[in-house]
Amino acid sequence: MSATPLLELRGIDKSFGPVQVLRDVAFAAYPGEVTALVGDNGAGKSTLVKCISGIYPTDAGQFVFDGRPVNIHSPRDAAALGIEVVYQDLALCDNLDIVQNMFLGREKRSGIVLDEPTMEQMAADTLAGLSVRTVKSLRQLVSSLSGGQRQTVAIAKAVLWNSKLVILDEPTAALGVAQTAQVLELVRRLADNGLAVVLISHNMNDVFAVSDRIAALYLGQMVAQVKTTDITHAQVVELITAGRSGGLGLTGEPATNGNGAAPAGSTTGGVS
Amino acid sequence: MRVGPSQDEIRRQNLGALLRYVHVHGATTRAELTTALGLNRSTIGALTADLAAAGLVTEGAPKETGRAGRPSLVVRPESDRVFAYAYSIEVDRLRAARVGLGGAVLDRRELDRPRGLTAAEAAPLLAGAVKEMRQAMPEDAVCVGAGVAVCGMVRRDDGLVRLGPTTGWVDEPIGTALGTELGVDVPVTVGNVADVAAFAEHARGAAAGCDNVIYLYGDVGVGAGIIAAGRRLTGHGGYSGEVGHMVVVRDGARCECGNRGCWETEIGEHGLLRAAGRSDARGREAMLAVFDAADRGDAQAQIAVRQAGDWLGFGVANLVNIFNPEMVIFGGTMRDLYLAAAAQVRSRLNSNGLPACLEHVRLRTPKLGEDAPLVGAAELAFDRLLADPLDVN
Fold first, then answer.
1. Given a cut of 80, is residue B309 above it in pLDDT?
2. Min distance A208 CA to chain B CA atoms (Å)
3. Where do Low complexity bias regions lie (chain A) (predicted)?
């Protein structure tokens, strides 16, 4: 779709005391595409996401958003740019209904009272835009929803604010087969609607089912970012576990990391 | 010798184009129509007036736009009034619906279908459902046609179902049977379920705007609806797209069509259940149970799903190399198989597909879901209306 990334990171370093968690990481997310971020436990996926969303400051590196260099110092900065994160625990309030959850902390007002009709309409439009048919009433309490429906609400909440980049942390973990399928279709639809989507997942099926690109982290280094049409399951597993696979991934000594891995977009050109 | 199309033909063409636009895109302002169709304002005005007089569209004031200037009138399809009957004859069930102009399902009925029911037996059941719906519909409603989606090979000329291996139908005149049974003076168009679902997804679903699409539809067997260069590929007699019967294994498992080693013996219901060691089970529920068992860690189910996924990728790679589509859609049970085994499907496709053909191919699941056969069957019926809007009534 687009050859220019919406978000591009270059040379990101991040340490916690003596432990270097991210080393010279390059990463790019494109509008209209799902970029899967894969890696073993402790490879640095969550840290990278927290750097993008402004929770952790980075030690070094550049952020380029929509072609402009930006600084993200806090979650507020990230939200202002249109970056939303859906965490694994979803951060929904069980005792509130769907609309209340979607507008939590950002309620619309008319005068001094809450503008319920507008909020309800916006929530309904957002869900309809995502072709969500599983939710019966918007005034249902979140506690009455299934896991898949909760995930749907959390994702819809992220989309509601004209966000441009949505990051999903393991959205299908702990879901059954049918609900996983629905959430995967939703993830795909977000990107087809023009958003840049970053999907963190351990499940190779999910990654191959919806992603356009796969970015693999190995021990804090970005070892490859390739198009999903150019790689096989076995190669991704090798990248995750060994940091290299054939011509892909780490070359030479891991200690000398001059440029990190270049984002694949710069070498492979056009995108499906 | 004729030099060009006559005035009348041009007008008919324009009427069809305008009606098709609001049929696919919903309510549209005259201003947008002017830009989209490349006709001038007065032509659009005259065409809309003709269509409104025929009762196919209405014109109304738009919502407040908040912008300066006189707002452009909005043209809406008469979705509640103008409709087509849509039927879907599936392996395990029969469905009937009323679908309004614009593609909305207005009313629907669903019946179980015992395996082995003939066309002559199925028609009265569907007619019964139609009678029920007729009682509930508004008095001024106008039926413009009927469309049928059926699993089987359909002769294009008269809608004769030549062979439905999974339904057990041989030379069943379902179109004629339904026409007589309904007693309505409207044409009945019959299409293969995969073709029809592809048509629907192309018109208003996942493949909107894509001109080269392969829609794989799976139930017991597997078929494809192929759209090439924006048109449905029907073949000479209307039978094309039987991709489930590509032979992929020499002397493989016996297929219901009589051959051995057809693609659907590996990726269809029987293949998956056989590999999972559940040969005595049947039906979609049984397939879903295998995916569920695989997800929960049943080793044999996992092997079966991976194998079927690998075979799915194998066939898709061949199709992608032959047709160079921009999108492959997995519908019916193929949706579930694709989502459960995407890693295998993709890996096999990526290794077997030619790089140039793979470059722009997108793998998707249907947007219309279960409704695709009904919406598509209605599209078949609407197609005649859209070709010549003023002639049908």
1. yes
2. 5
3. 251-266
Inter-chain CB proximity B347 and A208 less than 8 Å: yes
Distance from CA of A267 to the nearest CA of B (A): 14
Instruction: Label residue B219 exposed, middle or buried (CB < 10 Å: 0-12, 13-18, 19+).
Output: buried
| B311 in A contact zone (CB under 8 Å) | no
Question: Cα(B331)–Cα(A164) distance, rounded to whole angstroms?
Answer: 29
What the block records as the tokens of A230 is 């150019």
Facing A177 at nearest CB: one of B340, B362, B369: B340
Site from B201, B327, B347, B351 to mutate, A interface, most A CB atoms within 10 angstroms: B347
Nearest to B336 among A176, A181, A272 (CB): A181
Structure tokens at A227: 């198009």
Element (H, E) at B97: strand B93-100
Tell me, yes or no, whether A172 and A254 share the same domain: yes
Kindly state whether B295 is in contact with chain A, defined as any CB-CB distance less than 8 angstroms: yes
Residue B393 pLDDT grade (very low, low, confident, very high; cuts 50, 70, 90): very low
pTM to 2 decimal places: 0.86
- Which of A137, A162, A187 is at the close of a domain? A162
B7-77 in CATH: which number? Answer: 1.10.10.10
Q: Which domain holds residue A130?
A: 93-162
User: What is the biggest distance separating any 2 CA atoms in chain A, rounded to whole angstroms?
Assistant: 64
Q: 3.40.1000.10, 3.40.50.10140, 3.40.50.300, 3.30.420.40: which CATH number matches B82-197+371-387?
A: 3.30.420.40
DSSP state of A228: G
Please count the residues of chain A.
272
Q: Which of A173-177, B56-60, B166-170, B318-322 has the weakest average pLDDT?
A: B166-170
Q: Are A66 and A114 in contact (CB under 8 A)?
A: no
Asked whether residue A87 is domain-assigned, the answer is no
Same domain membership, residue A174 and residue A149:
no
CA distance B301 to chain A (A): 13
Domains B7-77 and B208-366 share a fold: no
Candidate from A13-17, A205-209, B89-93 with smallest mean pLDDT: B89-93
Identify the pLDDT of residue A255: 41
For residue B223, what is the enclosing H or E element?
Answer: strand B222-228
Residue A1: inside a domain, yes or no? no
**Residue A88: inside a domain:** no
ipTM value: 0.83
B284 close to A (CB below 8 A): no
Question: Looking at the domain covering B208-366, what would its CATH class be?
Answer: alpha beta
**Does residue A36 have a pLDDT over 90?**
yes
A187 touches chain B (CB under 8 A): no
Give the pLDDT of residue B217.
Answer: 92
